[in-house]
Structures are given as structure tokens and as C-alpha cells.
Description:
Layout: E1 2-8, H1 12-21, E2 29-32, H2 41-44, H3 49-52, E3 92-93, H4 98-106, H5 115-125, E4 126-128, E5 142-144, H6 152-163, E6 179-182, E7 184-185, E8 187-188, E9 191-192, H7 195-200, E10 209-212, E11 215-223, E12 226-234, E13 237-249, H8 252-262, E14 265-266, H9 268-274, E15 280-281, E16 293-301, H10 313-326, E17 338-342, E18 353-358, E19 374-381, E20 389-391, E21 402-404, H11 411-429, E22 437-442, H12 450-460, E23 462-463, E24 493-495, H13 510-525, H14 544-550
Parallel strand pairs: 1-2, 1-13, 2-10, 4-5, 13-24, 14-15
Antiparallel strand pairs: 3-7, 6-17, 8-9, 11-12, 12-13, 16-19, 16-22, 16-23, 17-18, 18-19, 20-21
Helix pairs in contact: 1-13, 5-13
Amino acid sequence: xxxxxxxxxxxxxxxxxxxxxxxxxxxxxxxxxxxxxxxxxxxxxxxxxxxxxxxxxxxxxxxxxxxxxxxxxxxxxxxxxxxxxxxxxxxxxxxxxxxxxxxxxxxxxxxxxxxxxxxxxxxxxxxxxxxxxxxxxxxxxxxxxxxxxxxxxxxxxxxxxxxxxxxxxxxxxxxxxxxxxxxxxxxxxxxxxxxxxxxxxxxxxxxxxxxxxxxxxxxxxxxxxxxxxxxxxxxxxxxxxxxxxxxxxxxxxxxxxxxxxxxxxxxxxxxxxxxxxxxxxxxxxxxxxxxxxxxxxxxxxxxxxxxxxxxxxxxxxxxxxxxxxxxxxxxxxxxxxxxxxxxxxxxxxxxxxxxxxxxxxxxxxxxxxxxxxxxxxxxxxxxxxxxxxxxxxxxxxxxxxxxxxxxxxxxxxxxxxxxxxxxxxxxxxxxxxxxxxxxxxxxxxxxxxxxxxxxxxxxxxxxxxxxxxxxxxxxxxxxxxxxxxxxxxxxxxxxxxxxxxxxxxxxxxxxxxxxxxxxxxxxxxxxxxxxxxxxxxxxxxxxxxxxxxxx
Length: 551
């Protein structure tokens, strides 16, 4: 069997690529996903992610012991379902800061990835419920909406931020990032708008698009320096699928380097040591891993102010029926609808800490729920200097990779993370929160010094599920792909997903990954890039009073 394009990985970028490339009826497109279907109702219910990330929606991988965190081993959720992380995340839609993408553009040869040049692709993806301006679009595949029914404690959190001197921000994806407010969510009609539902479902009837699930690709087949197809295992049978034009690897920041390494593309010495034949010596494959490490405060509430009580069987049933009948109530909540961006480092040029208010005390895997209703305030340092790796455990494609985020290898990250945790504790103590909060339970009042908080973090920190960078784009010796996402030294092979990002954006990474898919599709099709954005206050035909309002 042969196709023009073979896309390996049905995550956010892979779904975008499959949809956009198959717009051309003259080409055939195959999308291969190792995971299963997203038909289970919990994938569609906004609150369902809390169960899917702990069960059938994840590969169940973990990190190697983190030597800068007292050898802690962290659960490392990677999606095992069509739509990838967009099918199991908390649906928070953020894009980061303009400086993030201008930083990418500073990499050798990556000028086309500057903020003004990627913003049109963010806009093209969007069908935004509330905003239509220089920063937002409507009519795109991806549903973006505001929370359906925020709880009163969410409003209290926003007010607490202002009591701390952090301004209210109604749009974190607009002109400025800093502030507190409500997150935009990848939802449409109070259902999850994953990349699978947004990009694939409307086009599945196309005759030139084939989507195969439970198809694990074991290697890319290279012949005389060119990718000609892939070897895959499906339902116990080995099979080769040919790619007449290109193989596009879109398996994420862990899966993409793993596949390249299995295919003999990577650091030659490491591959030989595992018995993997070397096809192309590329030292950067699997290097440059970056991720946001999450610390959190958990407080006990004075009453039933969050969704912890819904865990009781009779209330779970009632909430499910309410959602099915009216599309509202607890199940319509993403559980992380409020948050903000601020500064841990007073010298930072843009926000370096992000907060997520979790409407419960046992939302994340590995965190136990309080006996009484509780609330969680997550905090993550957004600009880590630490760099980690993804490497092979063995030459067997079925083996889980060795994932080493190398958290806090740079002491600056540890210092800033603990500063962010301190700010989170201050949020909980503000007057606006006192009608809701009985007491802080974690870290707890006994934890006061930085040493105490370090110990607490080593025991409890978790990933924010934002890995990037392991197939970094650029032209330097450690780059894996060029700015057009072509793998250096191998024809007919590209990588298009979060792994190509030179640095992690200062935000949740689902939105940026979808943008990479949108822009990557135009690059692959040879289409002219969308015109860079010119903002309203820069246009000569905008009246002066309108400019003042924008500014």
C-alpha cells in the first residue's frame, strides 16, 4: 500500500496535518495512530480528563529518577488516543508571550517563526466564541470558548490576585499576558474540542484520507538517504507502508525522538551501543527536552465550594444526567478554568509563572483527595533553563523510552519554582479567599523555609504535561530539523509537532502545537505563508481615538 503522505502520530499536530494536507484532492494521506479511538463519552465530557489521564488514555510512562529532586520518579502522562494530548488535557487554551516566538526566530534560520508570522496561524485555527480582533479569529476548526458556569470561588481567586497587585486580564492571548482571569478553553457547545474532533471528524469522508488506529510504527524506512515509508505493527502483524512524497513524524516530544532513534537517526555512539544500525548521525535527537514542573498548594474549604463532593456516587450520577440533559453542571467544567500569569523573577521581561486554580483536591493522578472539599492552586515556572533527554531503553520498539526531564539541574529553576509556590500560598491567604478557605493543608503551616519547601516539592511536584524541544529546529549542529521541518540529512522526512520547538512557550502547549501543525501544513504544501499581522494601532487608516483605545 502506498500514499503520498504518511503521518506518524495522531496528536494535535498530526490531526491538523491530516486535515490540511487532504484538502488537496490530488494527494493521498494516511494518518497512523498507535492509540485507540476517542469515542468513549469521557473524552467528550470536559471533566472527563481527570479519569482518562489515569487510565486508558495514557501510555503509563514515567521518568528516570530525578537526581536534582532526591531521585524522585514522576509519572509522565503521554496520550494513547487519537487527538493526543488534546483529547485528555484540561482544555486550557493559551499561546504564551510574543517574546517566546521571537526567541524561536532568533535561532539560526528560524525568522519565519517570529510572533507576527505565527499569529495568523493561531487565528486560522480558531473559532472563538468571544473575541474577534487582531489576536483572534472565528470560523476555524478549533472551538475556543469561555467557561460555562464558573463557581464563586473562581471569582474570589481573581479578586485575591488583585489584592496582591496582579491586574485582571480578560484575554491572556491578547495584547498582554500578565494578570489573573478566566482561561479560554478548547470547547464548543460545552464539549471538548480536541484536534481529532475539530480537524478530523468533519473530513473523515474524504476519499483521499485514511486514518488507522492501533497502528504502532516501529521505524521509518530509509533507502539511499531518503525516507520511503514506515514499518508498522498492527494487531500483531508487521506491515510496510510506502510514502511517495514524504513521511511526517508527528508523535510528540517523547514519541518523535523515540521513533527517529529506532530508525537509526540520532547520536551514532548511543545507537551502536544498543545495536541499532546508524542511518544518520544526528546528535540533537532526543536532546533539549524542556518541560514545566508543577508545584501546588491544596487548601481545605469551609463548605462545598468545589467539585470534590461530586465524587460521591449519587452526586456523580446526578451530575452526569445533568450534563447529558442540559450540557451544564460539574461535568461541563474543565476543573481548571481560572488562573493567571505573573513574575517570580522581578527582572523578567515577561511573565515567568503560571497559575491554575483546580476546583478540587484530588484532580491529578497521584494526589489524594481531602476528606472534606478542597481546592488546588497549581504553579509552574515557565522559563526553565534545565535541559533533559529522551533516549532508548533498548533496541526493542515496544520498550518504553528513558525520559529524563532533568528537572532543576539549573539551580535557577529551583529558586524560581519555590518563589512561585510562595506566591500561590499568598493567593490562598488573601481576604477575598477567606470566606471559602478553612486552612492550607499542603504544604501546610509547618513548611516555612526554602529547605522545607524544597523537600515538599521533591515529594509532590509533577509534570505540567508540556514537554517540547527534542527535535529542535534550526541550522546549528545540534538542530534536528531545519526551519521548514525537514530532518537534516534525510530526504522526504519531516518532524512536525511540539518536539521542533527550540524553547518551551510560557503557557500550556496544546495551542502552540496546533499552530505548528497549521504552519507546517502550508510549508509542506508549498503554499505562501499567511501575511504577518499588522496591529490596529499601527495602521495609518485607523482613527486616532481608536488607536488610543487599543493602546
